[in-house]
Amino acid sequence: LAKTTQPISMDSYEGQEVNITCSHNNIATNDYITWYQQFPSQGPRFIIQGYKTKVTNEVASLFIPADRKSSTLSLPRVSLSDTAVYYCLVRSNFGNEKLTFGTGTRLTIIP
Amino acid sequence: KAGVTQTPRYLIKTRGQQVTLSCSPISGHRSVSWYQQTPGQGLQFLFEYFSETQRNKGNFPGRFSGRQFSNSRSEMNVSTLELGDSALYLCASSLLASSGANVLTFGAGSRLTVL
């Protein structure tokens, strides 16, 4: 089971690019990396998912180096509405693992 | 299409009582997982169900139980409530179980307060 480590909190100013890194040193061959965003008193929502290299969608990019021991969520030109907790989840595409989320990163956007 | 529906959204109980929470997954999703989230804590995994079978269970006492019905709807029950059970209980559904490539869709949660 890949264990994830993220920074507890980060601050950034509006309009800047924010990069949040998740470490998963024990990631296995069949593991996928998924990022979720959670606002207070709401359920998390899917942001982006990847296996290797780079993935981009309309809201974020996900960079995964060749060794896959870490991943970086990149949020371009953040706004106040991006203030939330961000979780990375690493889970195998096979087997019977528990769904173990890390502590998440609390991102605060400053006006 | 309709999202994941959790009921009730808010409830207040007293110590020693029991509570049942309900989760209706997205149509076609067969896997439901449950989580407990307390203030300042992350998402603590409770259990996962697929096709009416419990696939996995987190490190919670036996007071926490769940089940899944043939229509994929799921319930979780907490008996003999304690003050520390006050939390936001979230459920998530996905197409399949035990699949890292499957995206979880979460409900809005049920906020339980134990007095």
**Portion in strands of chain B:** over 45%
Q: What is the chains' assembly state?
A: heterodimer
- As a percent range, the share of strand residues of chain A is over 45%
The N- to C-terminal Cα distance of chain B equals 37 Å
Low-confidence stretches of chain B: none
- Helix % of chain B is under 10%
- Rg of chain A (CA only): 14 Å
- Using the CA coordinates, give the radius of gyration of chain B: 13 Å
Number of helices, where a helix is a run of at least 4 consecutive DSSP H or I residues of chain B: 0
Helix tally of chain A equals 0
Global structural class of chain A = mainly beta
Provide an overview of this structure.
The complex is a heterodimer of chains A (111) and B (115). In chain A, the strands form 2 sheets. Chain A has a 5-stranded mixed β-sheet with strand order 1-9-8-3-4, with no helix packed on it. In chain A, strands 2-7-6-5 form a 4-stranded antiparallel β-sheet, with no helix packed on it. Chain A has strands spanning 9-13, 18-23, 31-38, 45-50, 53-56, 61-64, 70-75, 84-92, 105-110. Chain A has 111 residues and is mainly beta. In chain A, 34% of the residues are buried. Chain A has no helices and 9 strands. Chain B has strands at 5-7, 10-13, 19-24, 31-37, 44-50, 53-57, 64-68, 74-78, 87-94, 105-106, 110-114. The radius of gyration of chain B is 13 Å and the shape is globular. Chain B starts with a strand and ends with a strand.
